[in-house]
Amino acid sequence: MSTNIADHVRSSLVRRGRWGIGEILFWLIAAATLYFLPERHLILNEIAIIGLFALSLDLILGYAGIVSLGHAAFFGLGAYTAGILARDGLADPLLGLGAAAIAAAILGFVTSFLVLRGSDLTKLMVTLGVALVLGEIANQASWLTGGADGLQGITMGPILGLFEFDIFGTTAYAYSLTVTFLLFIVARRIVVSPYGLSLRSIRDNPLKARAVGIPVNRRLVAVYTLAAAYAGVAGALLAQTTQFVSLDVLAFHRSADVMLVLVIGGVGYLYGGLIGAIVFKVLQDVISAWTPQYWQFWIGLILVIIVLAGRERLTERVRTLWKGVAGRTAKSPETLPKTSTREV
Amino acid sequence: MLTILFDGIAYGMLLFVLACGLAVTLGLMNFVNLAHGAFAMAGGYITAVLMNRMGVPFLATLPLAFIGPAILGLVLERTLYKRLYTRSHLDQVLFSIGLVFMAVAAIDYSFGSQQQLIQLPSWLQGRVDILGVQVGLYRSFIIVICGALVVALQLILTKTRFGSRLRAAVDDPRVARGLGINVSLIFATTFAFGSGLAGLGGALGAEILGLDPTFPLKFMIYFLIVVTVGGTTSITGPFLASLLLGIADVAGKYYVPSVGAFVIYTLMIVVLVLRPQGLFERAR
Amino acid sequence: MTIALETKGLVKRFGGLVATDNVSFKLEHGARHALIGPNGAGKTTFINLLTGVIKPTAGQIFLEGQEITGLRPELRVQRGLARTFQINQLFPAMTPLETIGLAVSERLGGGRDWWRVTGSKREIIDEIVEIAQRFRLTDVLDERTSNLAYGKQRLLEIAVAFACRPRVLLLDEPAAGVPEAERHELLATVAALPRDVSVLLIEHDMDLVFSFADRISVLVNGALFTEGTVEEVSTDPRVRAVYLGESVDE
Ligand SMILES: Nc1ncnc2c1ncn2[C@@H]1O[C@H](COP(=O)(O)OP(=O)(O)OP(=O)(O)O)[C@@H](O)[C@H]1O
Ligand SMILES: [Mg+2]
C-alpha cells in the first residue's frame, strides 16, 4: 500500500516538470514563423524580447510575490551595457548579452536588499525610485549614453561570427527567439525545482516559509538577481537588434507596459509573459493602424477592465485554458496572494 | 538665497495641496491612487480653458477648478474606486495607471499635446522687494491661499464632528463602523474633497509647474514622495514632507542643476527603506 | 534528564504592556509539557520569542545548551526547533503533498537545488509518505490546501512542523476550533510522536492537557505563575482561581 502511495506521490510531484503537448506546439509554431511569416520578423522580434522581459517579471511577481514598478531599470541597464559595448567596438552579440546579464544581475543583487522588507506599496515605490534614479543617471551621463539624443553608432558583428543581421529582421528574430527559448527552459526548470517550490511558499506565506526553515531573504535575493539578469538580456537583445538605445528603455511606461503585458497573459505560470507579449503587440499593431496617437488610451482602458473584471479570476481562466490546451493535468492552480499574512 | 527659500516654500505648499488628497485616500482607504494627478490636471485644464477660450477671470475659475474634479472624483469613487478598496495594492496600482493612461490620451485628444499657458491677472505678476528679498507676487498669493487651506484643513480635522469621525475611520475602519459611523460616506466625501483640492492645486500650479497632458505622470512621483515620506496618519507629516521636497527641489535645480532629480529619488529610497512608515511617523 | 530548551529571564514589552515577564523556563528532553494560562496571558508571545518571530526585550534562549537568542527563525528551525501556529498558517494555493514535500526537501538541503525536479529523490518521497500516513493525510494529498476540512488543515499544520524533524516541537493550541470528536484523535497523534521529540503544548481544554502532559506550567499576565506535575497543578487552588478569574494573593 505504501509503495502505491509513494508512486502516486512521485508522479504528482514530477508531473509538473513534464512538457505538455501544447507547450511543445507553442514553441514549434514560434519556430515555424521564422519561415512562414518573413515579412513580420521585425514585430516578432519585438514580441520575443518583450516576452522575455515579461517572463523575467513573472519570476519575481508570479513566483516570489515581489511587486515592481521599476523593472525597466534592469532592462535599460542591459540595453545600455550592450549598446555601449557595441558602439565602442566590441561588436560580438553574445559578449554584449553576457555583459548585460552580469551588469543587470549586479544591480539586481544590490537593489534586492531594498525590496526584502516593507509593504507592497513600499516595494512599488522603491523599485520605481530605482528606475527613476537610473533614468536620471543615463540622462545626465550623456558623454557615455548620448543622453536625450540616444546612443548612436551601434554596429553589431555577426552572431557566433556566422550570422549577419539583415534588414528584414530575420536573423534578429531567430536570435531573440533562441535566447528567449533557452532562458525559458532554464526558468521552467527552476520553477518546478525544490527551489521554485520554496519561492512559491514564500509568496504565499513568508511567515510560514520561515517556520519550515526556509531562508526567505536569501531566496528572494537570488530570484531577484536572476530576474534582473533576464531583464538585462531582454534589454540587450533590443539594443542589439534595433542598433539603437534611447532613454525610453528606462522610462516609467516601460515598467508599466511590461506589467500590463504580464497581467494580460496572466501571472504565475511562465507562459503569461509570452502570451501577453503576443496579445499586446498584436493589439498595438491593430489599434495603431486605426488611431495611432491614442493607443495609450486603449491600453489604459484594457488595464482598467482587466482589473475590474477580476484580474486573478481571469488569470485563473487563462491558465486553466492553457493547461487544457497544453494537455497537462496538474491540479492546484495558484493565485497571487493578497497583501501578505500578518497574524501569528 | 532667501528668494530660493521663498520659492521653495511656495512650491512645497502647492505640492501639499496637490498631494494631501492622496495622503488621505491612502491613509483612510489604504488605496494607492496613482491617478491622483489626473484630477489635478483636470482642475488645471478647467482653469486654462475657461480663461483662454471664454475669458473668465483667473480668480473666478478657481472654484470651478475645485468643484469639477470633486464631482468627477465623487462619481468615479462611487462607481469604480470603491470596488477596489479590498483588492491588493498591485490591482489598485494597475487600475489607477490605466486611468492615468486614459486621462493622458483623452486630454491629448481634446486639447493637443502642447503646454497650456495661462495669463495671470496683472496684479499677480512681477516681484516686489521686501526687506531686500525678491518676492514673487504670484508665489506670495499661492502661499497665502495654500496656507489658509492648510489651516482650514487642520481645523476641520481637529475641530469638527466630521474631522473626528474621519480620524476614527483612519484609525480603524472596523471599529468606526461599529460605532455607527457611516464609513463609506466618509470615504466618498473625502475622496471627492481630495480630488477637488488636487484640482485647485493643478489650477494654481499651472503657471509654476506647467500644464500639459503628461502632467499626471510627471508629478506622480512627487505626490508619492510626499505621502510615503510624510506618512498618512496626520496631515502635518505630508505638509512637512511637501515643504522639504519643495525647497530641496527648487534649491537643487538652482545650485546643482546637473544632479537634478537624482538626489530626491535617492533620498526617497533611503527614507522608504529606513522608515517605511514615513519620516515623521512614530513606528506603530 | 537533560534540558532541551531553556529560557533565562525572558522579557518582552509591547510599549507599556509586559507580555512576557521575566520568564525562566526549562523544557526537559522528551518531555510532554503543557503551557496553560488565561486568554492574553502571553503564551503565543512566548512561542514567538522562542522561535524568533519577535525579538525579546531582555533575556536569553538556549536550545540544547546553545544560545539561540539572536538567531534568525529559519536557522532555529534548522537546529531543530519547530512550531505550529494558533491560527492556521498554511500555503493555501499549494497541496498538502507540496507543503510536506517543501519542508522535507528543505531540511535535506534541497531548497538550494534549482535544477532537479521536485520529487526526483527517493528519500524525499519516502519521508513524505511516512509523514502523510502518520497524520492521516494520504487521502487528501492532492487537494488544494484551502479546500481542506478544518481538522485536516490542523493536522497538516502539525505535519509540516514535524516534517522539519524537530528536536523540540512547540504546538500553539493545535486543537483549537477542531470539533470535539476529532480532538482526542488529534492529540493522540501528537502523543504518539517519537519520544525523542520534546513537545511543548499550549491548550485551553484541561481534559486534553491532563491526558497528554506530564508537566504543566501556568502563565499569568506574562509571568510564570506556577509549575509542576499534573497532580500538583490540577489540585492547586490558586490555579483554579486564576482560571475562574478570581484574584489571588500570592
Ligand atoms: N505584536 C503585538 N503588539 C502589541 N501587543 C501584542 C502583540 N502581540 C501580542 N500582544 C499582546 O500581548 C498580550 C499577550 O498576547 P498573546 O497572544 O501572547 O496571549 P495568549 O496567551 O496567546 O492568548 P490566547 O489564549 O488568547 O491565545 C495580549 O495582551 C496581546 O494583546
Ligand atoms: Mg495565543
Automatic annotation (TrEMBL), chain A:
Name the record gives this protein: Branched-chain amino acid transport system permease protein
Membrane topology: Multi-pass membrane protein
Subcellular location: Cell membrane
A Pfam short name: BPD_transp_2
MF terms in GO: branched-chain amino acid transmembrane transporter activity
Keyword Cell membrane: yes
Broad class of the protein's primary localization: membrane
InterPro entries found in the cross-reference section: ABC_transp_permease, LivM-like
GO CC annotation, single: plasma membrane
Residues forming coiled coils: none
Keywords of the record: Cell membrane, Membrane, Transmembrane, Transmembrane helix
CDD domains: TM_PBP1_LivM_like
The species this protein was found in: Microvirga lupini
Taxonomic lineage of the native organism: Bacteria, Pseudomonadati, Pseudomonadota, Alphaproteobacteria, Hyphomicrobiales
Signal peptide range: none
TM helices/strands, residue ranges: 19-37, 49-74, 94-116, 172-191, 221-239, 260-282, 294-310
Glycoprotein in keyword set: no
Automatic annotation (TrEMBL), chain B:
Transmembrane segments: 58-81, 93-111, 137-158, 179-200, 220-247, 254-274
GO biological process, one term: amino acid transport
Subcellular location: Cell membrane
UniProt-listed InterPro entries: ABC_transp_permease (IPR001851), BCAA_transport_permease (IPR052157)
Coiled coil: none
Record protein name field: Branched-chain amino acid transport system permease protein
Family listed: Belongs to the binding-protein-dependent transport system permease family. LivHM subfamily.
Molecular-function GO terms, alphabetical: transmembrane transporter activity
Keywords carried by this UniProt record: Amino-acid transport, Cell membrane, Membrane, Transmembrane, Transmembrane helix, Transport
Pfam families for this protein: BPD_transp_2
Membrane-related topology note: Multi-pass membrane protein
Record-linked PANTHER family: ABC TRANSPORTER ATP-BINDING PROTEIN (PTHR11795:SF442), BRANCHED-CHAIN AMINO ACID TRANSPORT SYSTEM PERMEASE PROTEIN LIVH (PTHR11795)
GO cellular component: plasma membrane
From TrEMBL, chain C:
A cellular component term, taken from the record's GO annotations: plasma membrane
One Pfam assignment: ABC_tran
SMART domains: AAA
Keywords: ATP-binding, Nucleotide-binding, Transport
Domain ABC transporter intervals: 5-246
PROSITE patterns, per database record: ABC_TRANSPORTER_2
Example GO molecular function: ATP binding
SUPFAM superfamilies: P-loop containing nucleoside triphosphate hydrolases
Protein name from the UniProt record: Branched-chain amino acid transport system ATP-binding protein
Species this protein is from: Microvirga lupini
